[in-house]
Design goal:
CATH class of the largest domain: Alpha Beta
CATH topology of the largest domain: BirA Bifunctional Protein, domain 2
Number of helices: 12
Shape: elongated
Structural class: alpha+beta
Order of helices and strands: HHHHEHEHEHEEHEEHEEEHEEEHEEEHEE
CATH architecture of the largest domain: 2-Layer Sandwich
Number of domains: 2
Distance between the termini: 50 Å
Strand content: 15-25%
Radius of gyration: 27 Å
Strand order of the largest sheet: 1-11-12-13-16-10-9-4
Length: 426
Amino acid sequence: MLDPVLLRSQPAILAERLLATRGYVLDVPTIESLEHERKHIQTRTQELQNLRNIRSKAIGQAKAKGEDVSELMAEVTAFSDELKASESQLETIRARIEAIALDVPNLPQDDVPLGNDENGNIERHRWGTPRSFDFPIKDHIELGMRHGWLDSDTAAKLAGARFTILRGQLARLHRALAQFMLDLHTGEHGYEETNVPVIVLPDALIGTGQLPKFEEDMFRTALGDSKRYLISTAEIPLTNIARETITDSEKLPLRMTAHSLCFRSEAGSHGRDTRGMIRQHQFEKVEMVSLCRPSDSLDEHERMTRCAEIVLEKLALPYRRVLLCTGDMGFGSNKTYDLEVWLPSQETYREISSCSNCGDFQARRMQARWRNLETSKPELLHTLNGSGVAVGRALIAVMENYQNADGSINVPAVLQPYMGGLDRIA
């Protein structure tokens, strides 16, 4: 959430910035009308509170003197009734203003390129050279299905489309990738391994920005009257650990990593990548989250992105780093780097990690704060999140980049200890 002072005091200026950078149309007349009404009702509410207090005090004084207080009592009752109605009106208006505020995206940093979609993204650098094959390249679906390792048909009988069953050595390779990433992030990169719930309450999703705007992308549970959601990323529970708390300065930056199941309805994908494992309803990801001082968030963003890059470099997978433009950036982000891994079957780079700096956008929604030792006052944290990396897409990249002519797959050197020393699966 953006600073509400900015929304209330400078809606026209804010609207101009949002339209220029995000293509977002802010309803300025409605905001100004609501703000005018809020001020009027808030002033009247305060007047009524003062009048009630004055009359209540007068009642006490009159009673002490043995005077008749019936007229004063009637006035207090009238003030109380009007005050109750005024407070209800004020709460309704505040809720309408907050609903508008919750729909407004984050403002990008100054160095984020303007653009409407992925065509406006800027490539920062590449690492590795795509492999040249002297045999016909197979995609991950053909490599998996020919051995019975990847079974979407049976999964569809169990759960419907966009689910996959992994078997045997491919399932083991998938597990090895997740273990390798966790060991790397906890051992070399200083993140604390954290096991989190994959079902959360609505407040957690409001805090990180998935609700109310993206509810159609979330899977929901139906258990009595209690509404809960399946997480689309471990960023949600990890970041909400700091919700409504004040973190000690000496604990910052607070870096956490988690391997979790993730669930997305893919409501807006319109049939893209329906085959195989690229775009599924259920997948696994190793997530990184950092909570830090505002002065450290730019450096922390670069560091986090570098941690994700090292995963791909240790796997010897060619990739590129891309700075997303304003039109391709996530709702809560003020700057995002995507890492895209090379897929030989598609002869292109595909996203495998997204690392975002959210500034104080999420922290304001969650009231996640830290105590500034210089001022002794609590201030909003900056929150960052990044895939470190998507396990299923890493598996696809390993399968395709390490394939052999006979359909076997070489195991990257860093994964062999997790595979009992196997250097090839067939």
